[in-house]
Amino acid sequence: MVTIGTFDGVHLGHQVILKRLVQSAGEIGGESVVVTFYPHPRQVLSHDSCIKFITTQEEKIRLLESLGIDNLIIIKFTKEFANIPSESFIKDILVKNIEPSVLIIGYDHHFGKGRDGDFEMLNELGKECHFTVEKIQEQDVENVAVSSTKIRNYLACGDIRKANKLLGYYYSYSGKVVHGQEVGHKLGYPTANLEVADEFKLIEKPGVYATLAEIDGKPYHAMTYIGSRPTLQDNRPQSIETHVINYEKNLYDKEIKIRFVDFVRDDKKFDNFDALKHQIDIDEQTITNILNKLS
Predict the structure, then answer these.
(1) pLDDT at 234 over 80
(2) Inside any domain, residue 108
(3) Residue among 77, 143, 132, 73 at smallest CA distance from 104
């Protein structure tokens, strides 16, 4: 049993395909195989240098493994690979190396040079190469079609709730806690400054978020700020700062994971530190109320 795709986000639509793959393999005593690509084709073919993704390669692998996939094949995507005709990809790579009995694909799956390979072509090739093709229909959540593009757009505009609904889990990223200017200490809200290593990881719209911070495998309530700290006027690039509520241990150099639950407010410039401190007090209470409802 085989499926093919880029699977950015491994969202609810992908999960339906992958669960069906695992189920089908189990029914016939076979193995489930996922074929994906790295780098992402858009990184190789697109001229957009600002392209960002929902999941890093490591995150994608962990999500796929969590769904019970038996085998993961990662094909190095190059411009030369992109020029392989769709029929050659199926016959010379997929059939020759994997010999699938069933190929499960999404409703809009296209592949090969010029993306001219589709469900109809696969059906014809299946008759010749002795495999069947199963197409999974479009998945909707509250009348919204699930897609990686929609999720990326929701994240970019701060609509974390809608993004999470289409993902089927809280959007997150991990990073190392690095030293900052310790302004949070002066305000009574010490923050962990997060350094996200993957330059292609999508960072949401600037603002304040209700989050869960995973530290040493344990979740804690937290408030996370994304922005350029306009009140400080220090002209620094965008930072990601998390205050872990009621947590007093040292976090420097630790690797922590932040899960985003809800968007609270936009980033803004305050007249002075007192006004900023007052707003953070309000933010903490708002976020505590949001997170308490999760229990």
Answers:
(1) no
(2) yes
(3) 132
Edge-first strand listing for the sheet containing 102-106: 71-76, 33-38, 2-4, 102-106, 132-136
Q: What is the distance, to the nearest Å, from the Cα of residue 259 to the centroid of all Cα atoms in its chain?
A: 11
The range of the structural domain enclosing residue 42 comes to: 2-139
Judge if 127 and 207 occupy the same domain: no
- Which amino acid is residue 251, in one-letter code? L
Q: Are 169 and 66 in contact (CB under 8 A)?
A: no
CATH label of the domain that carries residue 186: 2.40.30.30
Residue indicated by tokens 């491994």: 10
Asked if 125 and 178 sit in the same domain, the reply is no
pLDDT of 176 > 70? The answer is: yes
The count of structural domains within the chain is: 2
* Strand, helix or coil for residue 251: coil
- Give the tens place of pLDDT for each residue, 23-63: 999 999 999 999 999 999 989 988 776 789 999 999 999 99
- 157: Cβ–Cβ under 8 A, 6 or more apart, which residues? 205
Residues paired with residue 255 on neighbouring β-strands, in sequence order: 176
Q: Does 146 map to a domain?
A: no
Tokens coding 167? 């993902």
User: Which CA distances in Å does 290 have to 18, 156, 262, 283, 286?
Assistant: 32, 21, 8, 11, 6
Give how far Cα 109 sits from Cα of 5, 17, 134, Å: 8, 12, 11
Rounded-to-integer distance, Cα 6 and Cα 177, Å: 30
Q: What is the DSSP string of 35-46?
A: EEEES-HHHHH-
